[in-house]
Every structure is written in C-alpha cells, then in structure tokens.
Amino acid sequence: MTKISTTTRTALKQSFPNLAKDVKKFPVRDGEDPWTLREVEELAVLLLEDKERLEGELRAADAELSDLLRNSGDGAGDDQADYGSSALEREQELTLVNNMRDLLEQTEHAIDRIAAGTYGVCEVTGLPIGKARLQAFPRATLSVEAKAREERR
C-alpha cells in the first residue's frame, strides 16, 4: 500500500466527499474482508490518474487522427497500395481512438460509482462484484458470474 499525499487526499475529499461513510456499504463476497477506506482511496486515486492520462492521450490521438484524415490524399500517388496503406493507417488510428474513448468512459463510470456509493455492486445481478476482482480491474461493473454469462451469449 502506497502512502497518499496530502494534496491527493484533499483532491479525494473533493471528488468523493462521502467516501469514509460510503466505504462501509461497499459489498464484498463471502470470505472477503470488508473494504477499508485506504483500499478504496488507492483505487480512486488510480482511477483519477488513469482518467487524466487517458484524456491527455485521447487529445493527442484525436489530433493525430485529424491530421491523418486531413492529409489522407497528400503524398499518395495513383498506386492502389499507397491508398490501401493510408486507409489501413487511418483505420488503426480510429480503432485506437475508439478503444481509448471506451476505456475513458469505463473509468469515468467507475469514478461515478464510487462517488454515488454504488461501487462493488454488479449492475446485472445486484450482488457483490468481489473485492479481489475490483482490485485487479477497478473498472469492473459485473460479477465474474454475470460477465461469464454475458460472454457466452
């Protein structure tokens, strides 16, 4: 467990004013220890840092994609391979941007769930997601069982 700086702790209190009270209501699976304030604070800090990082990366990737789209005809001769290569590059950059947007959305949703006091509850079953699962993947919104059912469909 890492020590949280005073500045970070202040930011946490601003983002999550009821965290000390809400953490007591965060569910855990049978056999797991209850959430501690420090554990949830560490996850919240991780999510807030990820959000900031993803927003920066998304701005840069959006700018790069805009440049690719704006200059898509520049430098490409009449060769079909050049057109194909340019199209592939644009497609890859678009996929990267979309994946980043999805990850940012998941991160923001997890932050919202912590702030609302609903973190750790499966959105399908209403049962605990599991502390170990959330520590491994803080953006999880489904229990292992609900996720397995979703993937089978």
Describe the structure.
The chain is an all-alpha fold and 153 residues long. The chain is built from 6 helices and no strands. The two termini are 38 Å apart.
List the helices and strands and how they pair.
Blueprint: H1 6-15, H2 19-22, H3 37-70, H4 80-116, H5 131-136, H6 144-152
Helix pairs in contact: 3-4
Write a brief structural summary.
The chain has 153 residues and is mainly α.
Radius of gyration: 21 Å
Largest sheet: none
How far apart the termini lie comes to: 38 Å
H/E element order: HHHHHH
Mean pLDDT: 87
Give the helix tally: 6
Quickly give the structural class. Answer: mainly alpha
Would you report the number of β strands?
0
Low-confidence stretches: none
Give the assembly state of these chains.
single chain
Helix content: 55-70%
Beta-strand residue percentage: under 5%
Shape: flat
Zinc finger (dksA C4-type): 122-146
Coiled coil: 37-71
Pfam families: zf-dskA_traR
Domain Zinc finger DksA/TraR C4-type: 117-152
List keywords for this structure.
6 helices, mainly alpha, single chain, DnaK_N
